[in-house]
């Protein structure tokens, strides 16, 4: 079971909102909207994606990683390693 399963509808709602923002930016470009206004919206989309990613990471840590640590063994090390790599990817982006 995915760590976000209990909040799946919230995640989907956030992603749909982001999808709408992206469509809005496409419309802005199609309508030759001023560059800075388009960039402002792109920045808002990036912030929304980062927020969604952090929420997913939080769910992963509080569910998947916590359960693996409680069980112990190699799975715990694997889950912690996965989380560390995911955090590194988020920091780089």
Question: Would you mind describing this structure in some detail?
Answer:
There is one protein chain. This protein is mainly α and about 90 residues long. It has a single domain, classed as Metal-sensitive repressor, helix protomer (Methane Monooxygenase Hydroxylase, Chain G, domain 1). It contains 3 helices and no strands. Helix 1 (about 10-30) packs antiparallel against helix 2 (about 35-70) and helix 2 packs antiparallel against helix 3. The model has no long low-confidence stretch (mean pLDDT about 95).
Compact summary:
It contains 3 helices and no strands. The model has no long low-confidence stretch (mean pLDDT 93).
Question: Would you list the SSEs in sequence order as H and E?
Answer: HHH
What Rg is obtained from the alpha carbons, in whole angstroms?
17 Å
- By CATH, the topology is Methane Monooxygenase Hydroxylase, Chain G, domain 1
Shape: elongated
What is the helical fraction, as a range of percent? over 70%
Q: Roughly what is the average pLDDT, rounded to an integer?
A: 93
Number of helices: 3
- CATH architectural arrangement: Up-down Bundle
Strand content: under 5%
How many strands, which pairing sense, and closed or not: the largest β-sheet?
none
Number of domains as seen in the coordinates: 1
Q: Report the structural category.
A: mainly alpha
CATH superfamily: Metal-sensitive repressor, helix protomer
- The count of β-strands is 0
Low-confidence stretches: none
In whole angstroms, the N-to-C terminal distance is 27 Å
CATH class: Mainly Alpha
